[in-house]
Amino acid sequence: LKMSWVRFYLPLHVLMAACLCHSIKAPTTSSQQSFRTDLFNFYHSLILADGKETTVHLMKDIPKRYYFVLEESRVLSPFTVTVTPCDVPIEWSILVHKASASFLGRETQGDHDTREVSQSQRAPSMVSTIFNYKGNSVETYVGMSSHSALYMLEFLSTERDTHITVYLTTDTTSGHLYPELPVDPRIDVIGVGHTTVTLTWKHSPSVLQHRESIQYCLLVNEKHNYKSLCAAETAIRSSGMKLPPTLALSLSPYLLEPQQVMILSNSELSIINKVSSGEVRQICMGTKNTYTVPNLSPSTQYYFDVFVVNLLTNASAAYTGTFARTLEEPEPKVTELKDGKVIQVVLDGKKQKFYSLQYQARHKKVQFSFQLCRGQVRVHITKNGKTVASENISGLRYFSLKGKLLDTYLVQLRSTEESNSSVKVQVSPHFHKPLFPLLPESLKIKSFSKLRTCNSVTIAWLGTQEESKYCVYKKRIEEDQVWRELQSADRCSGPESRHKSEKVLCKYFYDLNLQRAVTTETIGGLDAGTLYLFDVYLFGPSGIPVRYHSKVVKTRKKC
């Protein structure tokens, strides 16, 4: 029976001919017909490459067959077959046909040989099934063989068209294509927060042996666990987006799709895939076996899968996936608002959290007043749980609302910028004095270029029909300070925050005719060729100032 690989599978034609010749010499039986069918299936199968991962595409309800041959050996020779479904569950099996001298025919050698032929005719079939499986897990069959045999793998998908990967190897001494998993391949959840989950897992033996070419990659999603990396990639593709190949999990460069975001920091590669069912994150962290997943949503269940990836072959092995639910976000602290009392709120732009204020109405009509001090702020007001106002505010903003006694109002404030914002808030019945003075149409300060001299400038601003107090302040600044001074100005701060030397004057004025409600001031005693920052503060009956927009003017250098 000694024969090489080539010498064994090339004589398939001979085997078929022998089968046909044998059927002529003896009446056709059901066992002979079954055998010829089995042999026909082998003959019409594809050769499965040894030592190489093969991608197999399956069409629904159409079986696909591959075969390989093992030659005779004096010792038991191991071989392994690993099948990885990349989508739906499949059915697959391994069949073996052992070479038989009695089948090849020794009837001319004597009575004893003739009996061997007759026994083979009565055998049901020389093909036997040694393994079968149905499911979507990665399965590996390990077999031993000492004599020549022909093996066939049969694959079938009954749900839909799909693809799988198949890896056959008869050389178990030259290392593994797939990284090894530890004896305990579970992922442990060791910490859960509102927006984070901390995971740990036991090291793969492959990481300890080949640290340079092996790394761990983590997959995070809100749908379910994946039993293989190709199953995860197939699911993402089926959602309508194009995914890079598995090599994307290594640090190889590639082009991202518009639905993808790549973040590389501290030697960690994060790929965020925006899909219809939420985010799918791929995070590769080298050989660290503990990782804290950041930026999760509170009170949300997440599924975590860890894959150990061979960067040289792109082959991977999956740990047993786990899941965890982040903690519920704590109820925000609510501050009580009182009639007529002004409070100033500083909002953290980085955390983007709402600051909540609550007010229980003691009158049917109430007015909320907001003065934006710095940054940009979003205001959301609900009455008894129903939204009554929601918008971004700038400058001064009033909301006059009608309701019933003891209605509960909830005001939520949030910075819409990454930098901190601040705002002043007051609530009061309509018949109380207003928080802010009557305002002009514009809070801009105008300067007159033609009236500038080396030691003076002339500025103007609008007034109102209500007699009010206006105070002017100046500050000498440098060229590189202009942007910072204008951006960092606190529009809620009053003259009390200014140095006494910066005060220029205070004056009262008004005009019933708004067309003439304009005042000008010429400010002298300035240095030539120098930048000055001018501010005007308007005081109303409540004494709370409103700051006009700062104006920067430069005196003439030569006169």
Automatic annotation (TrEMBL):
Compartment(s): Secreted
One family name in Pfam for this protein: NDNF
One MF term in the entry's GO annotations: heparin binding
Domain of life the protein comes from: Eukaryota
Protein name: Protein NDNF
Sequence ranges assigned to domain Fibronectin type-III in this UniProt record: 179-316, 437-545
Entry keywords, A to Z: Glycoprotein, Neurogenesis, Repeat, Secreted, Signal
GO cellular component, one term: extracellular region
Main localisation: secreted
Function: Secretory protein that plays a role in various cellular processes. Acts as a chemorepellent acting on gonadotropin-releasing hormone (GnRH) expressing neurons regulating their migration to the hypothalamus. Also promotes neuron migration, growth and survival as well as neurite outgrowth and is involved in the development of the olfactory system. May also act through the regulation of growth factors activity and downstream signaling. Also regulates extracellular matrix assembly and cell adhesiveness.
